[in-house]
Amino acid sequence: MIKCNLSSLMGRDRKNIQDVCNETGLARNTVANLYHDRAKRVDYETMDKLCRMFQCTIGELYEFDRQRE
């Protein structure tokens, strides 16, 4: 299963959901679903905005977790 590490990145940079929404222009619902790892699909534009904001790679934002299969 794919795991989203947005909450870890936000904690590292001391950002809350509203900060991410304001800085990326993403909808609060989108950010909240990613933060709580409930998103079913994510588009490239969303991934691009988050990677740019957190200066990270896709591999740092998402990871494959074999234990959650």
List the helices and strands and how they pair.
Layout: E1 2-4, H1 6-13, H2 17-24, H3 28-35, H4 44-54, H5 58-61, E2 62-64
Antiparallel strand pairs: 1-2
CATH architecture annotation:
Orthogonal Bundle
CATH class descriptor: Mainly Alpha
Looking across the biggest beta sheet, what order are the strands in?
1-2
Q: Care to count the β-strands?
A: 2
CATH superfamily descriptor: lambda repressor-like DNA-binding domains
| Shape assignment | globular
| Rg for CA atoms | 11 Å
- CATH-defined fold name: 434 Repressor (Amino-terminal Domain)
Number of helical segments?
A: 5
What would you say this structure looks like, in words?
The protein is built from five helices and two strands, in the order βαααααβ. It has 69 residues and is mostly helical. The chain has a single domain (2-68), classed as lambda repressor-like DNA-binding domains (434 Repressor (Amino-terminal Domain), Orthogonal Bundle), CATH 1.10.260.40. The chain has a two-stranded antiparallel ribbon with strand order 1-2. Helix 2 crosses helix 3 (28-35). The longest helix has 11 residues, at 44-54. It is globular and about 35 Å long.
